[in-house]
């Protein structure tokens, strides 16, 4: 495995599956942190998105579906704050996973087992948010797919696929997970 000299005592193991897992977990962590940060610092923009999706005010107005609409602003805002809290928690878990990967790569940690476990939790949180939350509940229950203006399905699907890919990658069988260094 390729290494890079990092001072007199430590070498960082570059290349290989653990390095890819670390880099991609950190990438998803960064993305989720930026999403949460954006939703906090520009609260109103995505609050409007959530309000319109829940109100179903830009869908086909089918009487058989409109009973699902949530038009109470307080409930809409509670849903939006819950989304931001979930994003923030997922980002924090993924950052913790990234730190554990870094420790494993430098030989300072107890290996990759804990990094995989923590990263799995964070990635499943992302999958639940975008899969169950945006694709399932937003897309189907609130018929977001019908809206020309307030349709976030493409972004949700992209985020779901990326998180799913990283989750599969960190669970690929490899002797590197069990190496003396890892």
Brief account:
By secondary structure, the protein is mainly alpha-helical. The protein has six helices and two strands.
One letter per element, helices H and strands E, the order comes to EEHHHHHH
Mass-distribution shape? elongated
Distance between the ends: 12 Å
How much beta, percentage-wise?
5-15%
Spans of 5+ residues with little confidence (pLDDT < 50)? 5-10
Q: Main sheet? A: 2 strands, antiparallel
In spatial order, strands of the major sheet run 1-2
The average pLDDT value, as a whole number, equals 91
Q: Which bin fits the share of residues in helices?
A: 55-70%
What does this structure look like?
The chain is mostly helical and 182 residues long. The chain has one domain. The protein is 68% helix and 5% strand. Strands 1-2 form a two-stranded antiparallel ribbon. It holds the Pfam family DUF2165. Keywords: Membrane, Transmembrane, Transmembrane helix. InterPro entries: DUF2165_transmembrane.
Task: Outline the fold blueprint.
Elements: E1 2-6, E2 10-14, H1 16-41, H2 43-55, H3 63-66, H4 73-106, H5 113-141, H6 153-170
What attributes characterize this protein structure?
68% helix; two-stranded antiparallel sheet
């Amino acid at each position: 495995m390729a290494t890079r000299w990092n001072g007199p005592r430590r070498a960082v193991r570059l290349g290989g599956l653990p390095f890819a897992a670390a880099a991609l977990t950190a990438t998803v962590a960064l993305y989720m942190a930026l999403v949460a940060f954006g939703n906090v610092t520009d609260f109103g923009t995505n609050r409007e998105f959530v309000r319109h999706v829940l109100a179903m005010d830009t869908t086909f107005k089918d009487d058989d579906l409109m009973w699902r609409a949530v038009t109470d602003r307080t409930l809409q805002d509670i849903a939006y704050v819950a989304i931001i809290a979930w994003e923030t928690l997922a980002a924090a878990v993924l950052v913790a996973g990234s730190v554990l990967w870094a420790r494993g790569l430098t030989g300072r940690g107890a290996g990759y087992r804990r990094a995989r476990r923590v990263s799995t939790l964070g990635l499943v949180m992302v999958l639940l948010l975008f899969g169950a939350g945006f694709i399932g509940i937003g897309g189907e229950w609130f018929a977001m797919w019908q809206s020309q203006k307030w349709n976030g399905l493409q972004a949700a699907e992209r985020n779901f696929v990326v998180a799913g890919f990283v989750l599969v990658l960190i669970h690929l069988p490899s002797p590197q997970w069990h190496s003396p260094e890892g």
